[in-house]
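User: I'm writing a short methods note and want a consistent example. For Hexosyltransferase, I'll paste the sequence; you return only the structure tokens, no commentary, since I'll be parsing the reply automatically.
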Amino acid sequence: MHNPHFECQWPLLPLPLEASKESQKINTKSRDRMASWSTSTPLPILLGLLPILLLHPLTTTFGIRLGIVHRSSPDLPIFREAPSFKNGEPCGSENADGIHVAMTLDANYIRGTMAAVFSLLQHSTCPENLYFHFLSAHIAPEFFSSIKSTFPYLNFKTYAFDSNRVRGKISKSIRQALDQPMNYARIYLANILPPNMGRVIYLDSDLVVVDDIAKLWSVDMEDKVVAAPEYCQANFTQYFTHTFWSDPYLSKTFQGRNPCYFNTGVMVVDVDKWRKGGYTQKVEEWMALQKRKRLYNLGSLPPFLLVLAGNIKAVDHRWNQHGLGGDNFEGECRSLHPGPISLLHWSGKGKPWLRLDSRKPCTVDHLWAPYDLYHSSRHFLEE
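Assistant:
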């Protein structure tokens, strides 16, 4: 059911044409530079450039009001106000030009959410065409005011997700954080978002985008319900238990498909096809069976794989450089995978803001730090 609690869409203030062009030129250069990263570039050079990238938008973007935003709740961090970003010349202003991004809001992850939103705006050619849809189990004024104060010009809505919908369906996994109801909110996106929305990009809160998200948005879905990077070299069998594979009926689940692992933290979803195909119910059926039989040990990922693996639109791996948080137990440091990068994802136990605060960061955590609006320059000054 569509149940928006808050909505915020402000009138956009016009900029002088020269200022708009110059701002867009700078944003384009920054975006192209970040999107061309690869592991062939020496990491010390990358780290040397990061302070410049950190300061870059703060010194070249127009219409900025710097300062500290005072929080209204002791449970939420204090964030700096982000710079404003303006559309480039080729951007349209019709509804059809909008790019819709869905994320969850949680007090423990809101620092990551703010960094993710900042990164999306900074590297977008048409930042004013981005529309954010935030799902939260606790729609509180503090969340709304924190987003509004940090991103005064952001187009966004917040939606209530009733965590009771999944509490009785969640099975205990290998890590407590994976058992939180908000991890399952993505299953219900099609039920929560407006009925006239045809497509949405779902993003986790522990990532940053270093390329124009419009490139991912424009992917040809080829009549598929989900588009995401596939990883067919991964051992797919490890995501399910011996009980699953030894069952003569269940083991035929993937018959006729070539199932590959995909990470549900970055997905383009055709919400119209999702609704019509009853995919929420399909995922829930596997969750119900998991309660009776132990079919997998992870959280919300395996039921997605059971329903969709081998039947999604595969996109370039650059759109999910995942696993930067390490495994689900230790969260040890990991290096970047080979190839170009458009999105960095700290899936796994280790989160960059926690490791930076502990003064024991991994090298890759310094790639997240420039987007941290919570005292964002402190980490560079201290390292």
